[in-house]
Specification:
Shape: globular
Largest sheet: 5 strands, parallel
Helix content: 55-70%
Number of helices: 34
Structural class: mainly alpha
Radius of gyration: 28 Å
Distance between the termini: 68 Å
Length: 666
């Protein structure tokens, strides 16, 4: 057998064992696999190969023990369940075989061997209806190209690299195969390459407009890209054909949430839960919408229902903690601690549970235990993050080099001149939701949420072939003609229209837009920009104990958050120099100390007359989607300002990492 000289030693040994098994030489394959297992005791494929050879050699007890060991770490690996099914077939135990094989195909529908076995087992037990279903799956897989079946099997088991290699090679040879194109799009969706996934699925739907599974995937990609109106339209097309389809209804509810149509979403979620009362994710989604509308008691009930439906559901507990006003009972803390410590708990649940326990012990004044859990949660999140601080620092340096005072002055008058947007920028947890709520309490200002249009525009300017060492953006701004800035400004206002009512001004509260103030000013020169700033230790500490739904990857280590804060100060200093008078700095502590004069200052900057309702912002009824949603529904309290001092014993490394920022932030 020819070997690839570029393969690692591990891969070469795996290749040799696979070939021995293909040749039926399990007496040689098993000791080779066991020797390799001694070197890599937790490797999923080595464990699988050991169990497979054990079965072929009649060592069924040993094979089942190997599979039990495998399940401890890889409970969702389909071929582990399939192999267990094979073992029970050898044992002539049909019910257990059927159960194992059903688990396999529920994870991975592209397992011909499992479907074939299921068909035979169902016929043997007299279950003709399920035998026919299994036979239909066998027939479907036979119609597909073998490469598509193999790639789908890898994809279903989370093995994206081999899946993509197989399917790309096949498409180069086969051309427009809609199943292969859809699979490549699904891989893109998993890898967050959303523009490629959208393009592929749009092409599939041109070739096969009635392909509902592809249209569903297309709507999911639009949802991930925050193109909520288009996602709703695709969901409506699907529901017109199958109005009772559960996945289509859940998708429509999610897209409705994106549009701020929470009443519709709540109705949809409640109807779905009548049919699926044990669906933990639906309880959670319902709770999020209720929370956003300020219906806290109902939200708590729904979050508790989510935790009851799945006791290790970390997100349900974290969402309760994230209300900031909820206090856990002893029994709830005991359940959380047990779930967090359980070996079978999934990493994402463990992360959520750690942050929830951090908040629970903080509320009880046990700051040592609280910090232990916050630290553990951050370490778990950081271990899986691909965040690189130098990419942000390179972008900052290039923004300063490109967007000079002369560069911006030479483009005076470009862009869309309408003054509608008010951008609120800064770091997360700096108090921006409070400023948003104050402004949204004005009769002429529409509160929306953290809009994704500017980040999406930046991604488009960066292009598909992203070179992190030498990115196209922001340098590409120098290549744009005046009409390009006008077009981008018009596009921004057109794309955000869906979030607005009839008020003349609206808020975009995406905090990280501070990195793109040059772009914002060039496309929307009359937009107002407010930089909300908070004392660095308080701000960074608040981020370290916050688990964000998505993004904000810089918040999960002391070094990362400190570097990000310093970078933020550098860039904001630059914007204040090149755009004097265009960015209003609002210090969070000043707002807390003297609300009225700061509210008047903010309104003056925005060209708005003073209205007393802005001082009573906590009485304003509107949807608030950020982590501070419950806090801004209460009057201002000073308590949170000095919260970090309770953890001062552990914050020495943060102070050291912040360095000069401790004084420079003012």
């Amino acid at each position: 057998m020819a070997t690839d000289p570029n393969l690692s030693s591990l891969e070469l040994q795996l290749q040799r064992i696979r070939q021995l098994q293909v040749d039926g030489q399990h007496a040689f394959a098993l000791p080779a696999a066991q020797a390799l297992l001694a070197e890599v005791p937790d490797h999923v494929e080595v464990l699988y190969l050991v169990a497979r050879s054990q079965r072929y050699l009649g060592q069924i007890d040993a094979a089942l023990q190997t599979l039990a060991r495998m399940e401890q770490q890889y409970p969702h690996y389909s071929r582990m369940h399939e192999e267990r099914g094979h073992c029970y077939v050898v044992r002539r135990h049909a019910p257990r075989a059927i159960d194992a094989l059903l688990r396999a195909v529920n994870i991975n529908p592209a397992l011909p061997s499992s479907w074939n076995l299921l068909e035979g087992l169902y016929r043997m037990t007299g279950d003709s209806a399920n035998a026919a279903t299994a036979a239909a799956h066998v027939a479907t897989l036979k119609r597909l190209a073998p490469e598509v079946v193999r790639a789908t099997s890898h994809f279903s088991d989370g093995e994206l690299e081999p899946a993509e290699q197989i399917i790309r090679a096949y498409l180069l040879k086969a051309g427009n195969d809609v199943e292969a194109m859809r699979l490549l799009a699904r891989i893109g969706l998993k890898r967050d390459v959303l523009d490629d996934a959208e393009t592929l699925l749009a092409a599939v739907l041109k070739l096969a407009p009635d392909y509902r599974a592809a249209r569903y995937d297309y709507a999911c990609v639009l949802l991930e890209r925050h193109l909520y109106q288009r996602a709703c339209e695709e969901a409506e097309k699907l529901l017109a054909r199958e109005p009772e389809h559960l996945d289509y209804r859940a998708l429509y509810a999610s897209a409705s949430v994106g549009l701020g149509e929470h009443d519709r979403a709540i109705t949809l979620y409640r109807k779905l839960l009548q049919e699926l009362p044990g669906a933990a994710d639906l309880h959670l989604s319902l709770a999020h919408s209720l929370k956003t509308q300020g219906r806290q008691a109902e939200a708590i009930e729904a979050y508790r229902a989510a935790a009851a439906a799945r006791p290790d559901f970390g997100d349900a507990y974290w969402s309760l903690a994230n209300l900031k006003t909820y206090r856990f009972a002893d029994a709830e803390i005991a359940r959380m601690r047990a779930a967090e410590a359980a070996p079978a708990t999934q990493p994402v649940d463990r992360q959520h549970l750690c942050f929830a326990l951090g908040k629970a012990f903080e509320d009880r004044g046990d700051y040592a235990e609280s910090w232990r859990y916050y630290s553990q949660g951050n370490a778990l999140k950081r271990s899986e993050s691909r965040y690189r601080a130098e990419i942000i620092e390179t972008n900052t340096r290039q923004q300063i080099e490109v967007c000079t005072r002369e560069f911006i002055a030479s483009r005076k008058g470009v862009g869309d001149q309408r003054p509608d947007p008010i951008f609120i920028v800064g770091l997360p947890r700096a108090g921006s939701t409070l400023i948003e709520q104050i402004l949204a309490s004005h009769s002429r200002v529409e509160g929306t949420h953290e809009l994704g249009e500017i980040p999406r525009m930046v991604l488009d300017l960066q292009g598909r072939d992203l070179d992190l060492g030498n990115p196209r953006y922001p340098g590409i701004l120098a290549e744009l003609a005046p009409e390009d800035f006008l077009r981008l400004g018009e596009k921004y206002l057109d794309d955000t229209r869906i979030y607005r009512g009839n008020k003349p001004y609206f808020i975009d509260k995406m905090p990280n837009n501070f990195r793109h103030i040059g772009l914002i000013h060039l496309i929307l020169p009359n937009a107002k920009i407010i930089d909300v700033r908070r004392e660095p230790i308080a701000c960074c500490f608040s981020n370290l104990k916050q688990l964000f739904a998505t993004g904000q990857e810089f918040t999960y280590s002391v070094e990362d958050i400190a570097r990000y804060y310093r970078t933020y100060l550098d860039l904001m200093q630059h914007w204040s120099e090149v755009l004097p008078g265009h960015v209003l700095r609002v210090q969070h502590e000043d707002v807390v100390e003297d609300l009225e004069s700061n509210v008047r200052r903010i309104l003056d900057f925005c060209g708005l007359a003073f209205e007393p309702s802005c001082l009573e912002f906590h009485k304003t009824a509107r949807s608030v989607r950020t982590a501070s949603s419950e806090q801004v529904r209460q009057p201002i309290f000073r308590d949170a300002m000095d919260q970090w001092t309770k953890y001062e014993a552990w914050l020495g490394p943060l102070k050291e990492a912040l360095g000069s920022a401790l004084a420079a932030y003012r």
